[in-house]
Design goal:
The complex is a heterodimer of chains A (466) and B (340).
Chain A lengths: L1 H41 L3 H6 L6 E7 L6 H9 L6 E8 L5 H9 L1 E3 L13 E7 L5 E6 L4 H11 L4 E5 L3 E3 L3 H11 L4 E11 L2 H5 L12 H23 L10 E5 H6 L11 H14 L5 E13 L4 H21 L10 H16 L1 H17 L5 H30 L4 H10 L3 H4 L1 H17 L16
Parallel strand pairs in A: 1-2, 1-6, 2-5, 8-10
Antiparallel strand pairs in A: 3-4, 4-5, 6-9, 7-10, 8-9
Helix pairs in contact in A: 1-8, 1-13, 1-14, 8-14, 11-12, 11-17, 13-17, 14-15
Chain B lengths: L1 H38 L8 H12 L5 H16 L5 H9 L4 H14 L2 H13 L4 H10 L17 H10 L8 H7 L5 H11 L5 H10 L5 H15 L4 H6 L6 H14 L4 H5 L7 H13 L2 H8 L4 H10 L1 H21 L1
Helix pairs in contact in B: 2-3, 3-4, 3-5, 4-5, 5-6, 5-7, 6-7, 8-10, 9-10, 10-12, 11-12, 12-14, 14-16, 16-18, 17-19
The chains are: A alpha/beta (466), B mainly alpha (340).
Chain lengths: 466, 340
């Protein structure tokens, strides 16, 4: 018994050491990538790009289900983007609330029949609307079929060569598309997908409103920890993945794709809980199998703020779904694991997901139980346990501080006071926020094993009436 | 084992704590410094030593990407300070094998915008130093405009250069017309597409004839540009030919034909009505859609809702088309009643 416990503790400590080394390595690579992207961004001529007819037009596609509180405002933020030519296609995916009515009222919509392509499969379209005030806005009203289904419907309507999938609860920086498209414009043959850094807040419209250098971070502890989570995900991980050509998740809140690429892979899949990570895996799989030269990039510019859950229950529900879809996707593409044919995706990216995302909850719980057992049996002193927790908490805090550093170097967006609070929150992340995420991940893993595919959309955060 | 674990944990804790503290201080002090610098009026002047250091950095041949970007930053600082060596240094950076670094130099050239900068930009366009679309964007924003200096690009051996030459001539309606018309028969379809797009902003019989010929181009994307261009140059005269494209297999060509016909407004109605009985479903749908978009259907619903012509259009458009038209007209009637 004692020997078994010791072995388990040692395995879990080895896992902890391995993941720490991986994260530190990714942070170092991410630091280099951030440096390059920052300099590239400085030398980008957004003014010329914003006026040039050579800037490639983009169709923004917005699936919306029960978003009546936010849809008019977020659609307006998309219409107001600084970009020479773009259209916004909002798909009302059979909402049971007043989403469609809110759009009709806000944008003077009129029903028009448009005969579109039928390239991507989706549920029946009930009606299409155009705005008398905004010629570049199209609204599609269709029978509910889920987010992937709504995105496919929008892809059929899209007129331009690039599409940008966004979430209906996301507010954008006015230059978001310019920032996202600047590298595409230079090399459209190779750059087939782009995503960029974004953050989260209870009321994203307020977070995005003040000018650069004065933007507030939502310092409600739950929101601040989610903010830190996003920073770490983008600056310590995704930028490094982007550098190594294994960017395996273009998040649905801001994902630019070349439309013909989506057409080649058959559009968004409706057989997974969530569409974004799966489509990224599928594109990598196809392009690498066929030996094609391509890039899917993650940029460091802060392009948007998305609405984050403001209660623990909502957060658990959201993260449980994320864990489930990661497990579904990584398992579905298991042929890529450690497969040289899939280059860095097969040798680094997919195994990274497997070891640090899919298996993490199992190791974390096992480690915790084994350590407690070891203390109970007198193999470890409680002081050792405390020292270990403190060590992990501060390793985590150091990684978080590096993410804050890279973000601030890139954008200089937030107030100094908010940066200070974030830095102080960082060491507590491991004991305050991580347990919630661990619980969500355990639930998600269990849901995956049970074959659960539900979305668990969280209720919108309460706002004062406009 | 406990003692070892404790020692390792404490050591890791000490290193991590120190790193967290150092990084936190770096964030806060860095930000304070940045904010203070922003408050001060920004001076682009360089002292001799700094200038010399930056010139050395630009002249160096960095092997790492890090070094390359430091080189670009040095060039930009020298350009802001109007250093006399900039024209020579910019050529060096343009030769960087890394396309994105060369593109950064292109931006600097665009900022300068002097006569000599135009020549370098055109030369870079020929040689493919940096992204050609980026060079083109800078050339188009420049004052003085490069105009006449773009015409020789149309005769370049490289199709990519001819493509950009044709594209960039769009704002100059008096330049290179004969060559452009000749290039509508270029062996490279991208060149033909660019030429057709540029000719679409011009006028005249020769231009119109050249565009009509491209409506039957073997490449679908040339037909896309030709449809829009012919509609613009020839107007209703091209309508019967363009309506043929409504039956095209490619969606992009059909969409371009619809755009061109919409642009003609009510003058396109006879040509569109002729398509309502076409064998091809796309053609019938497309004609009905354009009739709806130019307001012809709403006019008929309001003026004569029992018109057989309206029934023919509905038959071509389908049930949802009819529902949409009736809903639009109901909304108009409702609005009029409200105003009254």
């Amino acid at each position: 018994m004692t020997t078994a416990l010791v072995v388990i503790v040692l395995v879990c400590l080895a896992y902890l050491l391995f993941t720490t080394v991986v994260y530190v390595t990714l942070t170092v690579i991410g630091a280099f990538e951030s440096f390059v992207r920052r300099h590239e961004s400085w030398s980008a001529d957004y003014e010329t790009l914003g006026m040039s007819r050579f800037t490639i037009p983009v169709s923004i596609v917005v699936p919306a289900f029960n978003e009546e509180r936010v849809i008019a405002a977020t659609t307006r933020s998309m219409l107001d983007l600084d970009y020479p030519e773009h259209e916004v296609i909002v798909v009302n995916d059979g909402s049971s609330d007043g989403t469609l009515a809110a759009l009709i009222e806000a944008f003077d919509l009129e029903p028009y029949q448009t005969f579109v392509r039928r390239v991507f499969p989706h549920n029946e379209v009930r009606a299409m609307y155009r705005s008398t005030a905004h010629p570049n806005l199209v609204v599609v009203d269709k029978v509910n079929g889920g987010k992937a289904d709504a995105l496919n419907a929008a892809l059929n309507v899209a007129r331009y060569r690039y599409v940008c999938g966004v979430d209906a609860d996301t507010w954008f920086d006015r230059k978001a598309l310019l920032k996202g498209m600047r590298l595409v414009v230079q090399d459209p043959a190779r750059v087939i997908g782009v995503t960029s850094h974004m953050t989260t807040a209870r009321k994203p419209e307020e977070a995005m409103a003040p000018p650069q250098g004065r933007r507030r971070i939502d310092l409600h502890p739950l929101m601040a920890y989610q903010h830190l989570d996003f920073l770490r995900a983008f600056f310590n991980n995704r930028t490094a993945w982007s550098r190594g050509n294994y960017m395996l998740c273009s998040p649905g809140a801001f994902a630019i794709w070349r439309r013909d690429v989506l057409e080649e892979v058959g559009g968004y899949s409706q057989t997974f809980t969530c569409e974004d990570i799966e489509v990224t895996f599928r594109i990598h799989e196809k392009y690498l199998r066929e030996g094609r030269d391509y890039q899917i990039l993650c940029l460091t510019d802060n392009v948007a703020t998305t609405e984050g859950p403001d209660t623990v229950g909502k957060l658990v529900s959201q993260r449980e779904r994320w864990q489930r879809v990661i497990a579904e996707t990584v398992w579905h593409y298991r042929r890529m694991w450690f497969n040289r044919r899939y280059k860095s995706v097969g040798l680094v990216g997919a195994p990274f997901y497997l070891l640090t995302e899919v298996l993490a909850p199992a190791f974390e719980v096992l480690g915790l139980v084994a350590l407690i057992g070891a203390i109970a049996l007198g193999l470890f002193q409680p002081l050792t346990f405390v020292a270990m927790v403190a060590a992990v908490a501060f390793v985590n805090a150091a990684l978080t501080a590096s993410a804050i550093y890279f973000e601030d170097m890139q954008s200089r967006t937030y107030r100094k006071r908010d940066l200070l609070v974030l830095l102080l929150y960082a060491p507590l992340d491991f004991v305050v926020y991580r347990p919630i995420i661990l619980w969500a991940r355990l639930k998600g893993s269990w849901g995956f094993l049970r074959g659960d595919k539900s979305w668990n959309k969280f209720d919108r955060n309460v706002r004062a009436p406009a | 084992m406990d003692a070892l674990a404790l020692r390792v944990a404490v050591a890791v804790l000490a290193v991590a704590l120190l790193t967290w503290l150092l990084l936190s201080l770096t964030v806060l002090l860095g930000r304070l410094r940045y904010d203070r610098q922003r408050e001060r009026p920004r001076s682009s002047a360089l002292d001799a030593r700094s200038a010399e250091r930056l010139v050395r950095r630009v002249r160096s041949r960095p092997r790492t990407e890090w070094g390359r970007w430091r080189r670009v930053t040095a060039l930009q600082r020298l350009e802001r300070a109007h250093h006399p060596a900039v024209p020579q240094l910019i050529r060096l950076v343009l030769h960087d094998p890394h396309a994105r670094v060369a593109s950064a130099a292109v931006r600097t050239l665009g900022d300068i915008g002097d006569d000599w900068a135009i020549d370098i930009l055109i030369d870079a366009l020929r040689r493919g130093q940096g992204s050609r679309s980026r060079i083109a964007a800078e050339l188009e924003e420049l004052a003085p405009a490069p105009g006449q200096r773009l015409v020789p690009l149309l005769r370049d051996w490289n199709p990519a250069v001819r493509f950009w030459g044709a594209t960039l001539l769009r704002p100059y309606p008096d330049l290179g017309e004969a060559t452009l018309i000749e290039l509508t028969w270029d062996p490279d379809p991208n060149v033909r597409a660019a030429v057709v797009e540029t000719l679409g902003t011009r006028s005249g019989k020769a231009v119109g004839t050249a565009l009509l010929a491209r409506l039957d181009d073997t490449e679908w994307f040339v037909r896309v540009h030709a449809a829009r261009a012919a509609g613009h140059v020839l107007g209703v005269e091209a309508a019967p030919t363009i309506t043929r494209l409504l039956a095209e297999e490619r969606w992009w060509v059909r969409a371009a034909a619809k755009d061109a016909l919409r642009g003609m407004g009510s003058e396109a109605v006879p040509a569109l009505l002729a398509m309502l009985g076409h064998d091809d479903l796309f053609a019938r749908n497309g004609a009905a859609e354009v009739l709806q978009d130019i307001g012809f259907v709403d006019f008929l619903v309001l003026d004569n809702p029992r018109s057989p012509l309206l029934e023919r259009i509905y038959a071509a458009g389908g049930e949802r088309y009819r529902d949409a038209a009736e809903a639009r007209v109901d909304a108009i009637a409702h609005e009029e009643a409200r105003v009254a």
